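Morning F.,

Quick status update on the modeling queue. The single chain you submitted on Monday has been processed. Sequence for confirmation:
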Amino acid sequence: MTVVVDLPLEQRIAAALAAKPDGVLEAIAASCGASLLQVLKQLPDGQARFLPGIEFEAVWSRLTQWGEVLVVVHSPDIVLECTGCLPEGSTSHGYFNIHGLSPIAGHIRISSCSTIAIVDRPFHGRRSCSLQFLNGEGAAMFKVFVRRDKDRNLDTDQLAQFVALAAWQRC
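Structure tokens below.
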């Protein structure tokens, strides 16, 4: 992807999104010298809504009802994907601690979560729905995706819960 670097940032992002509207957002951000959050904020209308990070626990609580989800951690060096149910968590020592009978466990510094993006956009030709938990630098801490069924269609029950969350009054 070639982006003209002498354009203002917003124009670089717009050009990159126009060139690859269903591309990897982190790649678009890197090509423009932008953060993921800056790119998310320039997605076409309706593709991203935002909640403040202080809603972390309320959003997580809703996600624990979705059944098996796909959790992605995307860094410059790895795209790590894990499927499982999100267990309930509790706050202690500055972390949101998740444990249970799920492969998804660990400790999340919720004070680092500044924004939660609710993203509904095409990705490589298919609809993709996710919640993206972003830190103060505008980078993804992790993402939770609506899973796909065996035919690669979005799981209908999770999609309904995603749509309800996107319409949640706090958005």
